[in-house]
Amino acid sequence: MNPLKKITIVGGGTAGWIAAAVLCNQFSRDELSIELVESEEIGTIGVGESTIPPFLELLHSLNIDEKDFIQKTQASFKLGIQFSDWKLRGESYFHPFGSISANMDEYVFYQNWLKSCAEGDDFGLQEFSACSVMAKHNKFFLPQGASKTPVSEARYALHLDASLVARYLRNYAEQRGVLRTEGRVVEVQQENSGDIRAVTLQDGRNVGGDFFIDCSGFRGLLIEQTLQAGYEDWSHYLPCDRAIAVQTENSAPPPPYTRATAQPAGWSWKIPLQHRTGNGYVYASEYCSDDEAVATLMQQLEGKPITQPRVIPFQTGMRREIWKGNCLALGLASGFIEPLESTAIHLIARGMVHFMRHFPERNCNPVLAREFNRRMAMDYREIRDFIVLHYCLTQREDTSFWRWCRNMTVPDSLNETLEYFRAQGGLPESMDALFAPVSWRSVCEGMGLRPDSYSPLINNFNYTTTRAHLFNYRKALEDFIQQLPDHDSFIQKHCPSEKPMAA
Ligand code: FAD
Question: Which of the residues are catalytic?
Answer without folding.
Answer: 78
